[in-house]
Amino acid sequence: MHRIAIVVGSLREGSLNRKVAKAICALSSDMLDCFIVEIGQLPHYNQDHEKEPPAAVQEFRKLIQSADGVLFCTPEYNRGIPGVLKNAIDVGSRPYGNSVWDKKPGAIVTASPGGIGGFGSNHQLRQCCVFLNMPIMQQPEAYLGQVSEDSFDENGELRDGPLKTLVVSVAKAFADWVDLIVRGRKLIAEDAAHTPRSS
Ligand code: FNR
Fold first, then answer.
1. What residues are in contact with ligand 1 under a 6 Å CB criterion?
2. pLDDT(60) > 70
3. Cα(32) to centroid of ligand 1, in Å?
4. Burial class of residue 71 (count of CB atoms within 10 Å of its CB; 0-12, 13-18, 19+)
5. CA–CA separation, 53 and 188 (whole Å)
6. Distance between CA atoms of residues 166 and 170, nearest Å
């Protein structure tokens, strides 16, 4: 079973995206070992602190490093990603050459009460992930629109319906995606170890 770090782009206590993240954890517990990595405590990224990073930065980086994959669940703010999420991405990406995101398989889920499901933030985040060398799952895309409190029952579970159907398919596809990449890399490394070098 693969360990998945979930990064939620909203600090709001009643965040719909956090609820979606928790629902994904519950729905995929037979396939994935998910844990939410908090980002609200991270200081603003400052290159001057790279040599002696604050404890919160070190802890955050360690948690992401320990994961086999990363799932982002984020709202869209003004057609882009929330600043707090961009900060977490920047914090994890440096010092240069020592990014914790490098090669981590990922997926992006954006949830909004609006109709277009955070499409803008979803793709802005994809743009960062391309540069960060994260293989991001392409399908199914997860622009979760018209999400509201009513999408969840009193236990925080997604109510039956098209939203739950999509979230289940995203969780299943992501488990397969992480497995493909993690096992594929392992096989390639084993293969390389057994292949005699040509002189
Ligand atoms: C929003 N919201 C929003 N929604 C959207 O679909 N597209 C957008 O561009 C924006 N912009 C935006 C900016 C700011 C500053 C706020 C606070 C909100 C609405 C947003 O989707 C809604 O508040 C969600 O409930 C936020 O996600 P969480 O906190 O519930 O996870």
1. 10, 12, 15-17, 75-79, 112-114, 118
2. yes
3. 28
4. buried
5. 34
6. 6
CA distance 110 to 98: 27
Spatial distance between the Cα atoms of 100 and 89, rounded to a whole number of angstroms = 9
Whole-structure pTM over 0.90, yes or no? Answer: yes
Confidence of residue 85 (pLDDT cuts 50, 70, 90): very high
Q: What does the DSSP 8-state code read for residue 159?
A: P
User: How far is the first Cα of the chain from the last one, in angstroms, to the nearest whole number?
Assistant: 40
Q: pLDDT category, 117, cuts 50, 70, 90?
A: very high
**Cα of 77 to ligand 1 centre, how many Å?**
5
β-bridge pairing 106-111 and 142-144: parallel
